[in-house]
Amino acid sequence: MEKKISVAIDGPAAAGKSTVAKIVAGTLNYIYVDTGAMYRALTYKSLSEGVDIGNEIALVHLLNDTVIELKPNDYGQLVFLDNQNVTEEIRNNEVTASVSEVSKHKSIREEMVRRQQLLAKHGGIVMDGRDIGTHVLPAAEVKVFLIASVEERALRRHQENIQKGFSSNLGKLKEEISLRDKLDSEREVAPLRKAHDAIEIDTTSLSVQQVAEKIMSWIEERTR
Ligand code: CDP
Ligand code: CDP
């Protein structure tokens, strides 16, 4: 494949976006960008500094004064916030519970989208999030929308927690994921939506490898 294209992968929490996006980016030797990590990093900073996450103006000031860097490593991507490695911290429960409140603000989204479009300006990118196919990269050559049942998605997060040795409550995970789905898909600005030209893949009963293969064949078809 000669031309370096852009691949947009969207969908709700734990649909498998980042796992397959990393495989696809690795196969194509493309850059991988996890846009959720950018919203999580800002959320982590606002919670650490006691900034009211309902106060859009205060949050924008904070974001304008914040450097978020995504650095690829062998396992995927490290996240740096003002030069500090926060890869683990941004996945904690407090951040997860607040991130949808932060990401609903219009001016926060505008600045994040501006930064994401800069990262993607030369193509050769696989970007995952909620609004990549609809707003960030509307001209992406390949758009994928991943879904899976909420039961399966909660189970995936539960299994990840157990593997890491963390305590985990399946019922609570299901509630947390359902609430975040609702907030992300009902917000006014750039809600979670399938782009009209995206292919939808239900990953509920597929393996990671099967999903990655489907996306790779779609990419080959679109770029032939
Ligand atoms: O990994 P997980 O699916 O749990 O979430 P994430 O991709 O890290 O995204 C965290 C949150 O950031 C989402 O629930 C959205 O509120 C927000 N987000 C967004 O609004 N737009 C994006 N492009 C990416 C994430
Ligand atoms: O990025 P997103 O929140 O959409 O999902 P993720 O962080 O990639 O997490 C998905 C989890 O489900 C990972 O532990 C994967 O190994 C697992 N999984 C998957 O991603 N896709 C499947 N088809 C099956 C399992």
TrEMBL record:
Residue ranges of domain Cytidylate kinase in the record: 7-220
Coiled coil: none
InterPro entries in the record: Cytidylate_kin, Cytidylate_kinase_dom, P-loop_NTPase
Protein name in UniProt: Cytidylate kinase
SUPFAM superfamilies tied to this protein: P-loop containing nucleoside triphosphate hydrolases (SSF52540)
Family: Belongs to the cytidylate kinase family. Type 1 subfamily.
Organism: Peribacillus cavernae
Binding sites annotated in the UniProt record for ATP: 11-19
NCBIfam families: cmk
Enzyme Commission number(s) from the entry: 2.7.4.25
GO cellular component, one term: cytosol
Annotated PANTHER family: CYTIDYLATE KINASE, CYTIDYLATE KINASE/PANTOATE-BETA-ALANINE LIGASE
Catalyzed chemical reaction(s): dCMP + ATP = dCDP + ADP; CMP + ATP = CDP + ADP
Keywords, sorted A to Z: ATP-binding, Cytoplasm, Kinase, Nucleotide-binding, Transferase
Pfam families registered for this protein in UniProt: Cytidylate_kin (PF02224)
HAMAP family: Cytidyl_kinase_type1 (MF_00238)
Main subcellular location of this protein, as a coarse class: cytoplasm
Cellular localization per UniProt: Cytoplasm
Gene Ontology terms describing biological process: nucleobase-containing small molecule interconversion; pyrimidine nucleotide metabolic process
